[in-house]
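ARCHIVE RECORD
Type: protein–small molecule complex
Small molecule: nicotinamide-adenine-dinucleotide
Source of inputs: curated submission
Record status: active
Notes field left blank by submitter.
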Amino acid sequence: MSEIYTTDSATTSPVRLGVAGVGRLGEIHVRLAKETENAQLIGLFDTDQERSQRVAAQYGVQSFGSLEDLLAEIDALCVVTPTTTHHAVASAALRAGLHCFIEKPIASSKEEGEELKRLAQETNRVLQVGHVERFNPAFLAVRASAPEPMFIEAHRMAQFSPRATDVAVVLDLMIHDIDLILALNRWELPVDIRASGVPVVSDEIDIANARLEFAGGCVANLTASRISRNPMRKMRLFAPDSYISLDFAEPGVEIFSISDADGTENISSMLGAIELGSRNRNIRYERPMVQKLNAIGEELRGFVEAVRVGSPPPVTAEEGIAALTVAEAILEQISGRVKSEVRS
Ligand code: NAD
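STRUCTURE (tokenized, with ligand):
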């Protein structure tokens, strides 16, 4: 996706970073920001000042008493606050002339996301969205082979936690798979969306299923739940000659593929052969090497690099808005269904 970046924000000195929101994920950002090359973590701010001071003391950085005080001391802010606050916190940072990394989803509505993108363009600042599964070694291993799946099945199940119940599971968990599926479909938006979901323990949708159909014929079936007993993060891709299974939690990849036998096959990856009349086809099984890397550390490294060089970030605001657009369409479908069920 194209966004215009110029290089006048490029810098050779370390990027002075701050973190807003040091809950479960924010604390991880603090730890990894401290280890990020070419960055210097200055401090953090959390509305829960007791927590802010405890985390700051643990990592040897300053706890600020207000967001404004933190913004005055840094070049770039990581926004790791609840989704419903992303717009307020990130727009304050962008208006103060800072670069911004925002945890996924970019905001709680497409309009808010568009406004953040506009602000970043007006101020010529880098705006990156935390779609971290893009940096998952399993996805990196598969994306390198540019698969063209016709059917995708995604399952993302988590155990219940009161955190993130400010938004539906579609914005909390399913959005990861929406982003990956858009990336696999070259950022085309689906032409048809069918969805269903229910609130079970929270006031928002806790379990949802969506079927996305793309103009090129690819169909994706996504299921996300935050009330599951057994956590799971898996995706399966079906292409005419291959089946790819990704486990984001492991992380690991399995590829089964079929091709005409021509005598040059690598025997070590052969699983078997099928005779179809005069045609002999070989079935191969491979487990590609997945790199050992910390996905959050990688996305932060990409953000700092984009700030330093003045280049597009690895996950742009436009991509974050595309994922949010699909998530909102899914939620609209679900609320239409819930309303019609209530009426009948
Ligand atoms: P959390 O509830 O554990 O932490 C949020 C923190 O933000 C709390 O400490 C809270 O006091 C603080 N806070 C609230 N409003 C604030 C404000 N206006 N300014 C400063 N601090 C404020 O939540 P979490 O699980 O850490 O999630 C935070 C964000 O990270 C959410 O947007 C969520 O969607 C995202 N997240 C992403 C992933 C991922 O895989 N990328 C995983 C978990 C959470």
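CURATOR ANNOTATION: The chain has nine helices and 15 strands.
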